[in-house]
Amino acid sequence: MAAKASPTAVSANSGAEEAGLSDPGDSQLLAKMGYKQELRRQYSTVQIFAVAFSIMGLVPSIASTLSFSLPAGPAGMIWGWFTASILIFFVGLALADMASAMPTAGGLYWWTHYFAGKKYKNVLSFLVGYSNTLGLIGGICSVDYTLALMILACVSITRDGTYSASNGTIYGVYVGLILVHAVVSVYSGPIMPRIQTFCIFINIAIIIATVIALPVGKVTRGESLNPGTWVFGHVDNESTWPTGWNFILAFLAPIWSIGFFDSCVHMSEEALHAAKAVPLGIIWSSGCACVFGFLVLSIIAAVMNQDVNATINSVFGQPMAQVYYEALGKKGALGFMGVLIVIQFLIGLSLITAASRQAWAFSRDGALPFSNYFRHVSHRIRYQPVRAICGLVAVSIVFGLLCLINSVAANALFSLFVASNYVAWATPILCRLIWGKERFRPGEFYTGFMSRPIAIVAVLWLAFGLMLSMFPTTGPNPSPSDMNYTIVINGFVWVACMTYYFLFARKWYTGPKMTVDGVEEERTESETEEKRDEAHTGASY
To answer: Of 325, 335, 498, 503, whose CB has the highest number of CB atoms within 10 Å?
Structure first.
């Protein structure tokens, strides 16, 4: 759509230019959505892609989730990834349509409020905002928990498997990593775009190195690779679930690993040419994860021990460490695990950066507790939402206490991320399907006549993935210690969120708060004019 710049938008644009925060086009588009430019725009299209791609951190993410997919055997691991990643790509396409049309840091709850029916928009927007914030916190927790396990796995390798970390030690390392990430995130703002560019190269390098080194190392040590019939055709069952359901549970690995592309959305207000950069970042990152993940898993299956249970229950506490150790020996395993640790650290850094933008945006709209405090942007520290970062760190440390129970309870940190974000992603897509026919105007990226079918597939998949994330990995009659605590945590937060809304927040929460005066009236006039001029464009559902 091509609406002329309003006086309000021009005013907001001028202020942003004077502060050196943004170029005219981006700040004008943001002003049309009701916001003035407060964060500095410094991320190129490639760097926005890098934010999501580095958070996915393909090889470290696969290493983090092998325990979810390996019980289904090599074929379950590979084809589970292939199937789920294609369906996840549909979700990326559906979100990219909206991200191009309406690029804002609070995208998911903003879109929900924009598309939902009048009676439901406030409550659904409120729920999505909380769910998305919770999901990103779950992402921080799961990434740093896995990073702690990787570090301690290296300690175990150096001691030839004789060292086993206690739950208290794991939690202590986890807390230390969370705090280090917070400090680095606060003070690395000016160089974060360059860090993201570096992340692209190091992630591609570890993919290439893993794909080449594992089979070469295996053959060099005098062992043969597993035959293709075993790699692509052997389905195992190392769980207590029926084989068919065990295969489906392998979907949890790609669901978590390819679950961070919405970080591009949360960086919208720091992206240059956001209407193009953000959707392309979503599509590129999810597409690359689909292809490269299939390749890496095929290589892992080709070199791994055919005793799948031995790999799952590695003495090092990490199946991927066992795979590296058997193919490359002690020094090779330590070298590769060291690189994975560096990448995993960068994943956590990128994630806390993206998550803080969501928390800041939701605070800007007055929805989080102590919003006036957390919405503050520090001009002294290069326009960083320092208080939002500190708030995320505090909550992440509390959630990490699950580490002290056992590894099964700690796995809820992974499912917490999935369940929360799947609700947050599905809701605006569904609202657009139901109510958004007359309201949607495409941006620079648009899937055209396929937009509606893509959205339908995305919603159905997200509903299935949400259900899947609630299942325990041990069943069908799990003990309390084997319980998936995701339903407890998410259920509590969702119930508390809705209770808080209906008792208090409904009296004052009316959706995203406009920080540009008069934009609501201008938006209404603009939409009326556009509907008249573009009645036959076919751009809507």
So the answer is: 325
